[in-house]
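Risk register update: the risk of archive-format incompatibility is retired. Evidence:
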Amino acid sequence: MMSALDGIRIIDMTHNQAGPACTQILAWLGADVIKLEAPGKGDVARTNMADERGESLFFLVLNANKRSLTLDLKTGDGKALFKKLMTGADVLVENFSPGALDRLGLGYEVLKDLNPRLVYATVKGFGTWGPYSGFKSFEPIAQAMGGAMCVTGWPDGPPTLLWPAVGDSGTGMHLAIGILAALQQRHRTGLGQHVEVSMQDAVANLLRVSLRDHQRLGGVQPRTGNQLGRTVPGSTYPCAPGGPNDHVFIFAQAQMWPAFVEALDIDELRSDPRFATLQARWENRDVLNPIIEGWTRRHTKHEVMRRLGAAGVPCGACQDTGEVLDDPHLAARDMIVEVDYPERDGTYRTVGCPVKLSDSPAEVARPPTLGEHTADLLAELCGVSPEELARLEEQGVV
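Archived output:
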């Protein structure tokens, strides 16, 4: 079966998370992603947080469905081979520090002259222009500068980091959208272009609701913990058996209140005028929330979720990482998959492709070992003979 991005070749020069997250989803969708790595070292993520079972899961969960090619771009031969690769590439993705490829003589202007159809995609902490463009960034820096941390947490606590990687993987998803848009434009013009996403830009884009409230409500708003707006119930509630993650999030909008009351079957909620309207429930939240909590504490979080979900009330069990890995719904949708990697003892579980296409479903293939496809790729794309490959290996070029 043909994949959606069959025929698109992507040279992936990225490392850590933002870039690899972008190229992995494009690889899941069928692009031929060639991960270009330094000989003997590879992506720093291969060893970052490695454990006794082998190569780092940090690398493995971000580099499925790719091929690995090692090449030393600081050598003359390495640069020459790289340029050959670029003449037939559709996309280059890089997330080096600002100016790194330009200093190697391999920046956008050089590669555009070699291949006018090339889509050159860049991830930077703060982009290539603007007052902060020379600064480096990581996930928490992007969250801090994009505003995410100051809207997260409790009123009496500090700005709080989100663990879901909105700065890294979130930026990667934005970049994937930009690449696909540039490829679509190339169908009309025949020309590639430079696509850039900064981590701060991506986080700020995800902050739109809070930026709306800043203007709608008159300035910086206090952090509200888990409370969503002025709706009750609209927060987390503790459940049996009382463990640290035994909570549910319930959000019953005004039109859902009757169904919520019937699901709980508490007469006081039906008859008490203090709970009759959305505004009344908010004003009397210090009375109402303990009543709801008294009910949720008698049930497990998944029991609460199923009961309220059946009643049409949005409710989610607060699942820990183990529960996510074992979630039957995610398994049924191929969102948790088991992968066998030759340089790691045993299998590991990771996420599958969240984009479901009816005519070209994605399959997860294991990540490549370092340089696994070097010989085949250099022969296929650069015409390198076995004798030439041996010389390049001896000289440390590949």
